[in-house]
Design brief:
The chain is mostly helical. Helix content is 48%, strand content 0%.
Length: 71
């Protein structure tokens, strides 16, 4: 619920949500940090392209699924 609340306040069309399965809150120090760094670099190079890891797709799917669940 808190994540949905924050995402709902993000600027439309200018924001993307990436969710890393099994990722911890400090993703740059996480065991899968190479994946996060590759995504950041990919985003810098082309902000409109999907992230190399697909974490932005996971983010969309997760948010859609959570919106369908009863609160």
């Amino acid at each position: 619920k808190p994540v949905r609340s924050v995402v709902a306040r993000l600027p439309k069309g200018r924001s993307r949500v990436a969710i890393y399965r099994d990722g911890w809150h400090w993703l740059y120090r996480d065991k899968q940090r190479a994946v996060v760094y590759a995504d950041v670099l990919g985003w810098i190079v082309d902000r409109g392209a999907p992230l190399p890891s697909g974490a932005d797709r996971v983010g969309l799917d997760t948010l859609r699924d959570s919106a369908r669940r009863p609160r």
